[in-house]
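Quick question about two entries, pasted in order.
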Amino acid sequence: ELEEKYGRTIEWVPPVLPIPTCCKRYGVPFWSKRISEYIYRLQRHGFQWEDEPFAALIQKYPRCRAALRWWCNDWPKKDNGAESNFNIAYIPYLKEFMMQRPPTFKISAKCCEKAKKEPAAKFQAGEDFDLICNGVRKAEKGARSEAYKSCFTQVTAGPDQYRPLFWLSDDDKKDYKTNRGLRNSDCYEVWGMTRTGCPGCPYGKDFEQELELMQRYEPKFYKACLNIFGASYDYTREYLEFREKMKAQRKD
């Protein structure tokens, strides 16, 4: 439809590995990309989820420094005294939970790399591009928007980066939609979602709501997500329940 509307050819870039295959081979995503990557590294080195100082653990697992620093809360706190987001303590009681309930399934962030990042990088490397445009908006907040200070980044080696929507507010977006007579996808217009990403991804903190909507509107897709990500959903639920119990005990 877009090709016909704008008279343009859209290049379809296949993944290096489909998400189901990638999750089966490397592991499923859990909580966030960074945490999934650290757990993946620890699992690869046969980590036993023990609570020992960094100096002791680095002797046992000498080729796993970054992940061990995360596990041991080895990164210094921020200037305001807050916990570094490079430490596991940034996620309350996650370490205590994993020590009591080590994951029995493989965890990794590889599906994002193999399905999106690597294919995009390969496609970019094979063409003579001088500019990359993407739709990041500062008003959306999150890690991607906070990584940039302006709408343009000049790159010495490689194409420059332009973010034409960077300064648009939520009100600007509504005005543009009304003015142009646009219609969003059913995820927004029918399902009532306010944000979307990879369907069913366990990184989404509202994945329960998304699963509920999927079960109602896309039952086959819902079953597929359970088959692919089910272990991560269950592990996340167990952790959240554990965290609430720990908070209640601390309050008592």
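Here is the second entry:
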Amino acid sequence: MLLPASIMILILEDQGDREYMEDRWAYEKNIVDGFDYMAIFDGHGGADVASYLKIHMGNIVKEKLQVLIANHQEPLRNVEVEEIKQVLFDSFKQVVHQIPSIISLHTGSTAVVVIKYGKHIWVANCGDSRAIMNDVSCGAVALTDDHKPDRPDEEERIVRRGGLVAKAFREDVPRVNGILAVSRSVGDFVLYPHVTWEPEIKYFLATDKNGYLFVATDGIWDTVSNIEVVDIINRCFVAHQYKVIGRELVALARGRGSTDNIAFL
């Protein structure tokens, strides 16, 4: 999505070698009073939780933004950074309490939810999907930090709450209690509180050095770096070859061995 005018939105889904597609995305320009909404959800153990988030998260965010705006009693000209952060946190909390346990005890989904108001950007992250923004001076700016079980602060939190980080076998990736390869997730409530739904929420103010946001599931990030994504997008933009961006990114990820679902916008 381009900034500040959001004049373009590029969306791609690719199932890869998996039996079914578990990734979901959502986008709504001007969800309420100048706020844009975009989100990526990467389901695991099935697509039920990701599908639930796709359907319900945007509506919850919209309702809470409407309440915030109404309570200001005036047009929201001076954006309240902490208040919008609270909207995002409360939206995650509400959707977690609403989601049926029948689909969320043993299945889950990562979530990256972005709210944009002009050049103001809020990003709520839960899991290992990722959001980045280009920057002409340094190439790429990471807007999220992946929640992997062996990330030092995540491992400390898991252990402090009585869990452990272990591999299921020697060549495996670290997992929460030897089971889940992400340390935060919506759903997977059988692993709570070692796996938590609470998002990390960050605020950014875009400048003239920033041109677009890119949000994707880990089918891209497992094999392609932030700067490589930005380089491909920039090259295609310069050549006005917008339609090949998705094909080139997927081809690079697949060529390096990614077999996972891929979704980005």
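Reply: The CA atoms of residues 130 and 216 lie 6 Å apart. The chain has a mean pLDDT of 93. Hope that helps.
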